[in-house]
């Protein structure tokens, strides 16, 4: 049931968003830069909204109720966007009907109705994205071997269903939107989202529903505040023995061993004469004394943040494959063989999904078992190693994109063209199939980095922060969307009067999009170096139940404790 809801929800949302860039430029008559910025801001806001959704989910409503409300909101948003295409009064007149090339943009009312639909989708995304994965994992028992294996495979198959939905959306649905009718093409995603709602609520009685356990952010705030209050205290010797220890009986979090990073936070768990402890062992005032468990949970969050920062720059490369790479396809030869059939420009992103879809089962069923036998690790390679490979592939993706764009532009300027793309420029005779390698590399990059990042956030966060951990991935996507918008704005304004011309011209043949790609690859190299430094410093979350040697008393003056590095 969970997988079914996930598939239909993705089919509905992606079916609309996949071709939204073309919809904004052809139906709503927006300029390319305006449309690309609007898409980036929408994606950024939707992804940042996941943090709010995760907080409400973990604190008040639980994952089941949050997902139910968010799915209905997504349906309402998709329906509103479909109405902008179905009702003529809700969108401006088509530019193609005018011969003078002038286009009238949308009225304030038309734009407001469109934005209301996008707003409802943002609300829906804020609940669905951080909770769907965590809700699916809730259906497995992590205390059994079969449950652990199920969770490991679930991360890979989660992306498999995601990419399957994208493939269908980027081919069949995009074709209907571009060649048959926008009203029908946008109506299909709305209908699929309605099916997702029905499927979700039909399975209500068989789901494992984890209740909200209160705000985990309150505990985080307590540790930071108390550590600031006690900042003048001297560090204690043997903190793993002397810091205040208390775990609530109903806590769902696993016991964490002491780690020597962010030691300034340890002061929050130092017991002073002013601190009072209740008979059950809990602190009388949690804003004056925290437990070592609380401190270690906050350390988990702090350790993840530097890795999360590297995700922002990594995802900037992926953003371009969904925006400017589509514009590359618009001004390339999209004819299929010798026929007159043209592949929709947005459909080329499907090759990114194909490479991801084909590689994930191979990685899960062939590569991981092979590496597991060789290296003795459950996942074959560590999560950070997997992410690093993906970041490296994203750099190669941008380099290949730049080379292909330079070739496309050269052919457009030196050889006969195939007519003009509406409101763009001459269509290069270069086959759009040459764009496939950059999309394929992008898909492989996601198979390593994106899947690895989601698994990393989920496993490295305390159990009561799983939804927040899931939202962190989408917050990284949000940061990359906003950063990409900033890059576009800066490059556009900086190069507008340059001798080389505007890099991001409306007509790609007059611009230098290849330079823009090379710049992103250069930033990617710097980001990879930063990520490698963070990876060497990072310590994986441990489990105190498996590290009892760390809590043994000193014998003969020597501490019998394995080092953290050996244990992780």
Name the descriptors.
568 residues; mainly alpha; 16 helices
Topology:
Layout: H1 2-17, H2 20-26, H3 32-86, H4 108-138, H5 145-180, H6 182-202, H7 216-229, H8 239-242, H9 292-322, H10 324-330, H11 350-375, H12 383-414, H13 436-460, H14 466-495, H15 513-537, H16 564-567
Helix pairs in contact: 1-3, 1-4, 1-5, 1-6, 2-3, 3-4, 3-6, 3-14, 4-14, 5-6, 5-11, 5-13, 9-12, 9-13, 9-14, 9-15, 11-13, 12-13, 12-15, 13-14
Short summary:
The protein is built from 16 helices and no strands. The protein is mainly α and 568 residues long.
The arrangement of helices and strands along the chain is: HHHHHHHHHHHHHHHH
Gross morphology is globular
The end-to-end span amounts to: 36 Å
Class per helix and strand makeup: mainly alpha
Estimate the strand proportion: under 5%
Q: Tally the beta strands.
A: 0
Main pleated sheet: none
What radius of gyration results from the CA coordinates? 26 Å
SS field, number of helical segments: 16
**Which stretches are low in confidence, meaning pLDDT under 50 for 5 or more residues running?**
545-568
- Summed over residues and divided by their number, the pLDDT gives a mean of 83
Q: Percent range for helical residues?
A: 55-70%
